[in-house]
UniProtKB/TrEMBL annotation:
It comes from Veillonella tobetsuensis. One of its GO terms (biological process) is regulation of translational initiation. Belongs to the IMPACT family. GO terms for cellular component: cytoplasm. It holds the Pfam family Impact_N. Residues 65-86 are annotated as: Disordered. Residues 26-130 form the Impact N-terminal domain. This is YigZ family protein. It comes from the Bacteria.
Length: 216
């Protein structure tokens, strides 16, 4: 069996830039999250949001980079120390989502929230935005290629969908399926395909590759 590329650590990020607004005591908290892999990309994003919301009282920031969030940074941007950037970063650390930069833009509504209120508002804003944002899994999958007759396609397709396996189909005299399988599951999936086809399906193990898969 082909060897798995290494060292690669599985991690979750967001699929694209996403924005969500939260209002508390008339203050608007506009959270924008952005996928990035370097500090330069993160700072460029932060600069862009600062220009977009130039009239806001605060644009507080946090980012986490690397498969294990090796790089971390945050800024309160004028809010009382420890009430914005650090709580935002703590949410990132708790979720484990990485390769991401976050800006929470605050438009003051005239009612002071106090330190505790600010911490709760910034934390909630980031947590809710991450909950709603489309996410993706960066991981390793082995390509398993199988060739089957058309008569088996419906049953095999249902089986792959029930197992939540990603695959592509090529149609010719027979159907060739290229399936992305967790490396440790390859032998089991091969056996299941063989059992379903009563030994008629041919299976070839191809390369283990880095893939990005959408998460619900």
């Amino acid at each position: 069996m082909p060897e798995t590329p290494s060292p690669t650590v599985e991690f979750i990020s967001i699929a694209n830039e996403f924005r969500h607004e939260y209002v508390v005591e008339k203050s608007r908290f506009i959270t924008t999250v952005y996928p990035c892999s370097t500090e330069e990309e993160a700072q460029a994003f932060i600069g862009r949001i600062n220009k977009e919301f130039w009239d806001a009282r605060h644009n507080c920031t946090a980012f986490a980079l690397g498969p294990k969030q090796e790089q971390q940074r945050s800024s309160d941007n004028g809010e009382p120390s420890g009430t914005a950037g650090k709580p935002m970063l703590e949410v990132l650390k708790k979720t484990g989502i990485t390769n991401i930069a976050v800006v929470v833009t605050r438009y003051f509504g005239g009612i002071k929230l106090g330190a505790g209120g600010l911490i709760r508002a910034y934390s909630h804003s980031v947590a809710e935005t991450l909950r709603l944002a489309p996410k993706e899994l960066h991981t390793i999958r082995t390509e398993l290629q199988t060739t089957i007759d058309y008569a088996l396609y419906g049953a095999v397709e249902r089986h792959l969908q029930d197992a939540q396996l990603h695959y592509e189909a090529s149609f010719g005299e027979q159907i060739t399926l290229t399936i992305l399988v967790v490396p440790n599951d390859v032998e089991r999936i091969q056996k299941e395909l063989q059992d379903m086809s009563h030994g008629a399906a041919t299976c070839n193990v191809l390369d283990a590759i880095e893939v990005v898969l959408p998460l619900d």
